[in-house]
Amino acid sequence: MRSSRLPTQRSAKSAQQLVDAKLKAGFQDFPGFDPMQSFYYDDDEMGLHPLTSHPTFRKYFRSEVYYSSIQDAAPFGNDEGGCPMGAQ
Fold it and tell me: Do 50 and 42 touch, CB atoms closer than 8 A?
């Protein structure tokens, strides 16, 4: 006999089980994180800039090289590095 629960109910239960397992393993909740309000976009006009970057990225990647889209040595300043950003 098939379960009468909707797929979203099963998904929610699976997600909660995963969260519970992570908490039991020692992971901690991050109450300041709201996945529905935490979006960071690079602006075409401004380009790569610390103000449009995620705070955690800014914490660990402080060098100007990470915000350059023209330097060959920069992660996003060449064809290989630009591909993840949608450059053609």
Answer: no
